[in-house]
Amino acid sequence: MKKYFALLIVLALAVLPGCDMFDDGDTAESENDNVVYVYSWGDYLSPEVMEQFEVETGIHVVLDEFDTNESMYPRIKEGAESYDVLCPSDYMIQKLIENNLLQPLDYSQLPNVQAHIGKDFLKQSEAFDPGNRYAIPYCWGLVGIMYNTKLVDEPVDSWSILWDPKYSGEILMQDSARDAMMIPLRMMGYSMNTRNPQELMAARDKLIAQKPLVQAYGVDDIRDKLASGEAALGVIFSGEAINLMEANPDLRYQPAPKEGTNVWIDGWVIPQNARHVENAHKFIDFLCRPDIAAKNFEELGYSTPNTAVRELVEEDMDEDELEIAFPEPEIYQGQETYQYLGEVMDRFYTKLWLQVKTE
Known about the structure:
Elements: H1 2-14, E1 35-41, H2 47-57, E2 60-66, H3 69-78, E3 85-86, H4 90-98, H5 111-116, H6 119-125, E4 136-148, E5 171-174, H7 177-187, H8 197-210, E6 214-218, H9 220-227, E7 233-237, H10 238-247, E8 251-254, E9 263-268, H11 277-287, H12 290-300, H13 309-313, H14 319-325, H15 329-332, H16 343-358
Helix pairs in contact: 7-8, 7-16, 8-16
């Protein structure tokens, strides 16, 4: 009788509001919860677009931001946060796939993807996402050279200008192992995805030789320095070029130096431990709707794989801006996309880049 009475007490306590007696501390949220947790690059979603998504769907967007793929990855790997949607770059998407950290997409829930995402970009994405099973292209572009016409009076068609002593103290480089190493690798005719130690060490040596000419290695601050005229030349992503040219009319952009460059693609993926998978699909598909993709493009300036956007925005753009945002296929076709090279090569690239910066 005492055991029966005790059991009644336990059961009564278990149903009291706020009681966690049978909670293991990791209770999964319902798939129908009106929320989607998004982890993306900083300033990569128009606030107006997120607000419109919430109004139209009743789903609240909780946004966290990262500044590099490398700072994002450990949080996903460790599972410290249960994000529903991520926006990594090409090679990092491949790394997430290979480490079983993503779940396949359900295309039946993505009608706008099937209708409006260009086949060229889906094909390009297969280099890091075979069969397009895990990622939907969101923004894309080229890594090129932005230059100030008041400080540079010669054609900018080659990466070699970044080694010209004439511009000592006027050169800005990306503080990123892959983006920095890519440039000397292409200058020497090597693949930006090389695993050859001799080729990589040769690229390191070229960067060390360049270092006395470099004003700074940076990320977001490169844009500020170019806009304010503090430097003559800087390595930036094509999506930043339009806004920079609007901020400073003296700036021009070379998206594809003759030695070749990187075509980068950032895409939306759903983590393996996502709790709101249906909401994640709704969010991704919403971003692929032409009017929404156009709003994001106008806010961000990054090229979009959405084939319907150009017609919606071209009246408000001049010829230079259109060439950057919607380049002819021959400019980007045949260019390489970064691939994940494995943990050993990741560490080797990082080691060489640290040697450049500490030499």
